[in-house]
Structures are given as C-alpha cells and as structure tokens.
Amino acid sequence: MGYTQLVTPNLNVTRTPGWCLAFVDDALGATQRLATAQASYEREIANGNVTTGFNYPSGIWVVGFAHISQGEYAEMGHVWLVAPDGHIEDANGTHVSYGAMASYLGKVAPLENPGWSSWIDGVHVFENTDQPDNQANDVQYLRQFGKVQMNQKHWSIDEVGEFGGRQQVISHELAGAAPYSFEANGVLDPTAEELEQGWFTFGLDTMDIKDYDEASNGILIDQIGHNDANDFVWVDATAARNA
User: Fold this and answer.
1) Using an 8 Å Cβ cutoff, are 6 and 126 in contact?
2) Are strands 93-95 and 88-90 parallel, antiparallel or unpaired?
3) Count of beta carbons in the 10 Å neighbourhood of residue 89
C-alpha cells in the first residue's frame, strides 16, 4: 500500500509532559483543536481515519493515539507522532518504539486500544495513494459510516436568502458545483454574528446522512438532528469528508 506525506511535523516546538495534544497540534500546525487527545481520537474514529493497532506505515510521519482509562489522565487519551523510521516523538521526548513509550508512561498513564490516523484536528497528515475499491469516490466512502462530522469548520457565506419562511445561507465550497438553490443547498438560521463575519459553523457537528447522489457527488444531511425533511440540505461529499 502506498502513502504520500502531505504535512511534515516541525519538532522544534515546546514539549510539556501532560500536554501531548498541544505538542502534536503545534508540530503539525493544527487549526481545529480540541481539549484532549481522547476527543481528537474519537473524532478521527468517527471520520473513518483511524486504523487500530500499532503496525504503522513505514517511510512517513503518522499520528498515533491511545485511550487511557485509569490514573490521573483517565479519559484524556494520549497522542504522539511516529517518525518514518518508526521511532516515536511525544510531549515527553523521544522513544524507540510504541512499547518503549508505553513502558515509560507505565502506571501513570497506561495506554489502551492504540491506533493510528492520517488526520488530526483538521490536518491531513498523509494520504493513501492506493485507494480501496469500496472508497472509489467520496459518496461511497461516506456511505460506509452514515454520518459526517464537520469539525467546526468555517464555511464562507456566499449567498443569503430565504426559503420556506426561514433565512438561509449558501456556501459555494460546501454546496459544490453550481447551480445553487436555497431549497437544496440552504443552511438554516444563520446568526447575526455569522452574517456579519461572513462565515458559519454548524451547530450540530456530527450529522446523519439521509441520502446519497453519486452523479452530483452529493450527500443529504440532517443539519438540525430532528429527522425533519425541511431541515435536510444537500452538500458536496468531498467538501464534507475533508472538513
């Protein structure tokens, strides 16, 4: 299987034990940061970006995660960077392997359920250049999960209008190829602050996918979560997957 490195970490950043996510996010220049490594791990699991275990790809930088259920750091998780030669860099320093790192952390933060990811906090670290057949396009890829996560991405407001008695906005990036319509592509109820700043985020970050259209590369999402067809909006599958 082939991989292409998209982002190479800068290791010349501050390392503070206990602040593992800050180290990795700083090294990669992450912009969509969360509070704990466990939250980031769960987000990438939901996005379908995690492979379980620690059989890392060689020759590229990889993000590693693990759960912690005991001790001072329970439910906070741990995150690190795996180097192309397999050694590990984390907030505590350099380790020759996953086993060495797990042994070093010991009883303070026993690691469980390790995995590795191509994404973290909005950064696409590497991509698989041998895409499996069941992921031939982004609609098929998202169909596997039935949900999509927007990661609090900022979507530009390109059009403002009304449909069905409710104010709506359209983001051309989110909607995909023209033509656009408020009936199909309108995102509901922007706030006054969002209209002034020119971008919005979804109030519901993880949304159910209600329909798929490979011909237009579209997915129909429930933007409110009430399972009401009036709240559904068609968005571009590629934009949604890469949010």
Assistant:
1) yes
2) antiparallel
3) 21
Amino acid at 3: Y
What does the DSSP assignment read for the chain?
--EEE-------S---TT-HHHHHHHHHT-SS--SSHHHHHHHHHHTT-EEESS-PPSSS-EEEEEE--SSTTTTT-EEEEE-TTS-EEETTEEESSHHHHHHHHTTTS--EEEEEESEETTEE-EEESS--GGGSSHHHHHHTTSEEE-TTPPEE--EEEEETTEEEEE-HHHH-SSP--HHHHPEE---HHHHHHTEE--SSSEEEEEEEETTTTEEEEESSSS--GGGEEEEEHHHHHT-
Does this model's pTM top 0.85? My answer is no
- Residue bearing tokens 């098929």: 140
Q: Which of 59-73, 74-88, 135-149, 155-169 has the lowest mean pLDDT?
A: 135-149
Bridge partners of 235, per DSSP, are: 219
Cα 179 to Cα 76: distance, rounded to the nearest angstrom: 45
Q: Report CA torsion sign: 193, 43, 127, 27.
A: positive
Q: Which two tokens stand for residue 26?
A: 């700083």
Alpha-carbon span 50 to 114, nearest angstrom: 10
d(CA 98, CA 42): 20
CA dihedral (150, 151, 152, 153) in degrees, to 10, reads: -70
Identify the pLDDT of residue 136: 54
Residue with tokens 């900022």: 154
Q: What percent of the chain has pLDDT over 70?
A: 96
